[in-house]
């Protein structure tokens, strides 16, 4: 499930439920688990689109990929923490959170 076991995410949610201020740091693994390929690397979005379709990657290409993806359980976790007023900061190197 999303690259993370249901038990692991449930344990994380249990631990976080006892914390007052939470710092969230995320990276490319979050969108990859949702079906959006990473940008960098040999199998990344930029290389794949250029190679397979002969395209230069544009914003529209990225929107199309994102439109087909579904959020993972983790995508909703920071949102819930923020709504509860417990999110101290959210640092990310991805565009899906």
Automatic annotation (TrEMBL):
One GO BP annotation here? regulation of DNA repair
Which InterPro entries is this protein grouped with?
Answer: DHS-like_NAD/FAD-binding_dom, NAD-dep_sirtuin_deacylases
Quote the cellular component terms of the Gene Ontology held in the record.
mating-type region heterochromatin; nucleus
Which terms in the Gene Ontology molecular function aspect does this entry carry? histone deacetylase activity, NAD-dependent; NAD+ binding
Which top-rank group of organisms is this from?
Eukaryota
Family matches, as SUPFAM superfamilies: DHS-like NAD/FAD-binding domain
The record's annotation in PANTHER family points to: NAD-DEPENDENT HISTONE DEACETYLASE HST4, NAD-DEPENDENT PROTEIN DEACYLASE SIRTUIN-5, MITOCHONDRIAL-RELATED
Please report the name of this protein according to its UniProt entry.
Deacetylase sirtuin-type domain-containing protein
User: Can you name the source organism?
Assistant: Xylaria arbuscula
